[in-house]
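quick q for whoever's on today - can somebody do inverse folding on this one?? i tried earlier but teh output was garbage lol. tokens:
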């Protein structure tokens, strides 16, 4: 694989965004999508629903491995408007951990307070600072006020593995209901405690989640992807799905899959101080948090 055949990494965190993310566990970007883009994703979800016999109009619906369900949703695997945040964290071993489409109606099932991680032994046991899962949320419904199946989170809660209100629906002082316009994108630390509000309206809340992790963590919605579907993807999408043939591939990718991206600072496939005797596929490259260390 030559440098000329690889893309430069898309933009990721600014220093200010990283500081806010590490403090609150969440970034919120309102109006990140145009109305046409929102409509395009809603139409894709509606197509998926129309072809699924389990879908019942007006009721809650969840589709796992959503990026494989429609070509428009597949675009989200490596979309440059959000992928750089995940690449900053997981670098050359970036992987889609899971992807979901949600529709939540008037009688929505509220989720209790929880973090997105193994609950009995959270990711923070092994990675106290950096998230081992990063969740990108696409919000496709106007949510001007609470009581619309809003996503509710507790800022800064990613810094604790215990939460007094765990497994309850209790309202907690300091919680933040996500009241945002359609077209909002969120970037969430997997350890942030959150829940889902009731829906007291007839508005169907529609959204998409795409979560990323290091390639050596297990997938959350599949074992392997359909080979025929993988053939429809571009190079970066195929790599990021990490449909491994052997367990060893999780930590040692094939040579053709490296580099995933070229450095956005230098346009090269290696750090300036790299050990160039080491083969490229296993050559160390620094992630964004490492580069910020003194």
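ok took a stab at it. sequence:
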């Amino acid at each position: 694989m030559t440098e000329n055949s690889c893309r430069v990494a898309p933009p990721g965190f600014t220093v200010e965004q990283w500081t806010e993310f590490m403090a609150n566990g969440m970034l919120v970007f309102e109006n990140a999508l145009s109305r046409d883009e929102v409509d395009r994703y809603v139409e894709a979800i509606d197509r998926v629903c129309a072809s699924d016999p389990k879908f019942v109009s007006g009721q809650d619906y969840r589709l796992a491995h959503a990026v494989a369900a429609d070509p428009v949703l597949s675009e989200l695997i490596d979309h440059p408007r959000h992928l750089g945040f995940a690449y900053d964290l997981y670098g050359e071993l970036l992987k889609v951990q899971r992807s979901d489409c949600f529709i939540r109606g008037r009688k929505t099932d509220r989720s209790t307070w929880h973090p997105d991680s193994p609950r009995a032994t959270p990711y923070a046991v092994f990675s106290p600072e950096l998230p081992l899962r990063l969740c990108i949320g696409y919000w496709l419904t106007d949510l001007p006020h609470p009581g619309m199946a809003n996503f509710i989170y507790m800022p800064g809660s990613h810094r604790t593995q215990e939460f007094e209100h765990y497994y309850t629906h209790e309202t907690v002082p300091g919680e933040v209901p996500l009241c945002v316009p359609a077209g909002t994108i969120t970037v969430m630390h997997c350890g942030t405690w959150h829940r889902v509000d009731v829906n007291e309206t007839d508005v169907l809340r529609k959204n998409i989640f795409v979560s990323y992790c290091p390639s050596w963590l297990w997938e959350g919605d599949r074992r392997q992807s359909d080979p025929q579907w993988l053939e429809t993807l571009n190079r970066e999408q195929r790599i990021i799905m990490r449909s491994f043939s052997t367990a060893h591939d999780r930590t040692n990718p094939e040579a053709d899959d490296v580099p995933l991206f070229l450095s956005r600072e230098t346009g090269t496939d290696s750090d300036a101080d790299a050990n160039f005797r080491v083969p490229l596929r296993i050559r160390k490259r620094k992630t964004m948090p490492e580069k910020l260390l003194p």
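fwiw The mean pLDDT is 95. also The longest helix spans residues 35-50. so keep that in mind when u check it
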